Amino acid sequence: MTSQPVHLWIRAEVKSQEHRVPITPEIVKKLLDTGFKITVEKQHDRCVADAEYEKVGCTMVEGGTWRTAPSDAYIFGLKELPENDDSPLTHTHIYFGHCFKYQTGWKDLLARFRNGKGVLLDLEFLQDSVGRRVAAFGYMAGYTGTAVGIDVWCNQKLGSGALEKVNAPYPDADALKKYLKERIDAAVEKGAVLPRVAVIGALGRCGRGACDFATEVGIPEDNIVRWDMNETKGGGPFPQLLDVDILVNCIYLTEKIPPFITTDMLKETSETRKLSVLVDVSCDYTSENNPVPVYTEGTTFSNPTVVVPDVGKVMEVVAIDHLPTLLPKESSERFGADLLPTLLALPQVKEDEVWCRARKLFDDKLAEAEK
Ligand SMILES: NC(=O)c1ccc[n+]([C@@H]2O[C@H](COP(=O)([O-])OP(=O)(O)OC[C@H]3O[C@@H](n4cnc5c(N)ncnc54)[C@H](O)[C@@H]3O)[C@@H](O)[C@H]2O)c1
């Protein structure tokens, strides 16, 4: 530990519907025990009550006061900073900046860091020596995405039409599983057989979460089809996928690949196909390389599905890009636990390889934005 304690300042999230936290009080306690100083901005709708942070020994302050934090404090959050603000950023921020992949407004955000001499150590790019992310929300995205897919399937089987909304967030995974087990039982009572679920990218973070959720709500192992690179190496489209009820796409898309399914094949097999729900966890629908090119718009918890038009038998798609917020508590617990070893290395920020790589990436992107 350096003589000055590392000061982490957990800011309130301003993004609507964001109930997750970057670290839970349990993890905070571990950092405090090793000498960190931790300030937490109050936020009434977090999945963890303010009092829990206070109980473990954090200093509590009002939301949005990070701008006046001591200059050496790390401003720590998850999602976007308040929008419509071009003020210079003077601190070192740790959060998902969504600006290193040239997203809309990337240069504007980096200009704020340049103008304030601040730094962004982006959570998405904290990677180990082989390029693996040290912490990510993928597992819970696959887990919750499969939950929404099963919910949509139940609605179809219960003859209830399109699913109006998903009651996000759930207090915990047990509550979500209880709700879905009851829905599955009701569908089965009405004559449905348990769904077959295919997960592509099954060996990845999202894919593992997807398979686990299916298992945990009682889908038999024989009904879960697990595909990864090996199974798709022959190239799509794959007519076998029409024989499952729910397809969960969890791949990490890096290049153009033949599509897994197409609208033509959905249409041609309208009379025979079982497939009626696609959960596109990967959500690459804006990419020309999208391997499930049967829809063009994202969905939300308040409007969870789009219907693929003109393909006969119903085919609904879930494409929610903030799936882990359905279970903010478990999502936050997993993320914080994975991040802990990296946070513990913050006192050595100038030598630790994860933080050094993140800093270099920021410097490179800043230089690129200036060109
Ligand atoms: N919707 C959401 O809320 C949400 C949240 C988190 C992540 N994501 C997205 O989910 C995707 C997956 O993330 P992850 O963390 O699980 O990645 P990951 O790297 O852990 O796993 C991806 C898996 O896909 C497999 N794969 C890649 N190409 C494939 C192909 N052609 N055929 C079969 N398998 C293939 C890989 O082998 C790997 O096992 C990313 O695009 C990520 O941005 C979405």
From TrEMBL:
<keyword id="KW-0028">Amino-acid biosynthesis</keyword>
<dbReference type="InterPro" id="IPR036291">
    <property type="entry name" value="NAD(P)-bd_dom_sf"/>
</dbReference>
<protein>
    <recommendedName>
        <fullName>Saccharopine dehydrogenase [NAD(+), L-lysine-forming]</fullName>
        <ecNumber>1.5.1.7</ecNumber>
    </recommendedName>
</protein>
<feature type="binding site">
    <location>
        <position position="132"/>
    </location>
    <ligand>
        <name>NAD(+)</name>
    </ligand>
</feature>
<dbReference type="InterPro" id="IPR007698">
    <property type="entry name" value="AlaDH/PNT_NAD(H)-bd"/>
</dbReference>
<dbReference type="InterPro" id="IPR051168">
    <property type="entry name" value="AASS"/>
</dbReference>
<feature type="binding site">
    <location>
        <begin position="320"/>
        <end position="323"/>
    </location>
    <ligand>
        <name>NAD(+)</name>
    </ligand>
</feature>
<keyword id="KW-0520">NAD</keyword>
<dbReference type="InterPro" id="IPR027281">
    <property type="entry name" value="Lys1"/>
</dbReference>
<feature type="active site" description="Proton acceptor">
    <location>
        <position position="79"/>
    </location>
</feature>
<comment type="similarity">
    <text>Belongs to the AlaDH/PNT family.</text>
</comment>
<keyword id="KW-0560">Oxidoreductase</keyword>
<feature type="active site" description="Proton donor">
    <location>
        <position position="98"/>
    </location>
</feature>
<keyword id="KW-1015">Disulfide bond</keyword>
<feature type="domain" description="Alanine dehydrogenase/pyridine nucleotide transhydrogenase NAD(H)-binding">
    <location>
        <begin position="176"/>
        <end position="312"/>
    </location>
</feature>
<feature type="binding site">
    <location>
        <begin position="204"/>
        <end position="205"/>
    </location>
    <ligand>
        <name>NAD(+)</name>
    </ligand>
</feature>
<feature type="binding site">
    <location>
        <position position="232"/>
    </location>
    <ligand>
        <name>NAD(+)</name>
    </ligand>
</feature>
<comment type="subunit">
    <text>Monomer.</text>
</comment>
<dbReference type="Pfam" id="PF05222">
    <property type="entry name" value="AlaDh_PNT_N"/>
</dbReference>
<feature type="binding site">
    <location>
        <position position="252"/>
    </location>
    <ligand>
        <name>NAD(+)</name>
    </ligand>
</feature>
<feature type="binding site">
    <location>
        <position position="228"/>
    </location>
    <ligand>
        <name>NAD(+)</name>
    </ligand>
</feature>
<feature type="disulfide bond">
    <location>
        <begin position="206"/>
        <end position="250"/>
    </location>
</feature>
<dbReference type="GO" id="GO:0005737">
    <property type="term" value="C:cytoplasm"/>
</dbReference>
<dbReference type="GO" id="GO:0019878">
    <property type="term" value="P:lysine biosynthetic process via aminoadipic acid"/>
</dbReference>
<dbReference type="GO" id="GO:0004754">
    <property type="term" value="F:saccharopine dehydrogenase (NAD+, L-lysine-forming) activity"/>
</dbReference>
<feature type="binding site">
    <location>
        <position position="281"/>
    </location>
    <ligand>
        <name>NAD(+)</name>
    </ligand>
</feature>
<feature type="domain" description="Alanine dehydrogenase/pyridine nucleotide transhydrogenase N-terminal">
    <location>
        <begin position="9"/>
        <end position="144"/>
    </location>
</feature>
<comment type="pathway">
    <text>Amino-acid biosynthesis; L-lysine biosynthesis via AAA pathway; L-lysine from L-alpha-aminoadipate (fungal route): step 3/3.</text>
</comment>
<dbReference type="InterPro" id="IPR007886">
    <property type="entry name" value="AlaDH/PNT_N"/>
</dbReference>
